[in-house]
Specification:
globular, alpha/beta, six-stranded parallel beta sheet
Length: 219
């Protein structure tokens, strides 16, 4: 069976950064970089022209920044999934990226495998947040906790198995599947299976919602 190739546009104003990202992504047999942009405006134009599956957007770029380009992509080519890849991990940027329709957010100091995984997740229609970004979002949203919300979270978590609760607790810490696997002495694939099962049982759309629920439940 032929593997589906994920077509990607890279947008970053630094040529060396773009070259590094291209090298990492093209090391995966199922990813093809179809174009590179030096600013957000070019990213939108290239997305229109090439119809990629995923666009990787830096935040700080000339002409048009990445978060503005994210909004433009949502209007011009809504079927394209956009990932924010940046050195700037402030809470406000993470929240703006997600509320603006971004498919994920990861930092440039992420491991190469995490970048490849994030592109695959975005292409598959999943939301991806780096562990550091997950912690930012959870910390920000946890400030709105109420007794009723905590009680509901504990009720939902009580329906999970002991192992599932253990995995959920590590999601609450912002750990990646690989890190959670090392902590629990499980393979990354097994952790991924548990995460999928947990999301289904808790009716969470993504791991960020699950991480927030873990915090509310006191895990």
């Amino acid at each position: 069976m032929t593997t589906r190739v994920i077509r990607v546009v890279i947008a970053d104003d630094e040529p060396l950064i773009r070259a590094g990202i291209r090298m990492i992504l093209t090391s995966a047999a199922d990813i093809e970089v179809v174009a590179e942009a030096a600013n957000g405006r070019e990213a939108v134009e290239l997305a229109r022209a090439h119809g990629p599956d995923v666009v990787l957007l830096d935040i700080q770029m000339p002409v048009m920044d990445g978060l503005t380009a994210l909004a433009e992509l949502g209007r011009a080519v809504p079927e394209v999934r956009a990932l924010i890849l940046t050195t700037f991990g402030e809470k406000e940027n993470v929240l703006r990226a997600l509320s603006g329709g971004g498919a994920g957010f990861l930092l440039k100091d992420s491991a190469p495998g995490e970048l490849i995984g994030a592109v695959r997740a975005a292409a598959a229609g999943d939301a991806y947040l780096s562990p550091a970004a997950t912690r930012h979002v959870v910390d920000q949203l946890a400030s709105g906790r109420t007794a009723a919300r905590d009680e509901e979270a504990r009720r939902l978590v009580a329906e999970l198995s002991e192992r599932e609760r253990g995995v959920l607790a590590l999601l609450g810490e912002g750990l990646s599947n690989a890190d959670a696997g090392r902590r629990l002495h499980m393979s990354e694939a097994t952790v991924k299976t548990y995460v999928s099962r947990i999301l289904a049982k808790l009716e969470c759309e993504n791991r960020v919602q699950a991480a927030l629920l873990a915090r509310d439940a006191g895990l």
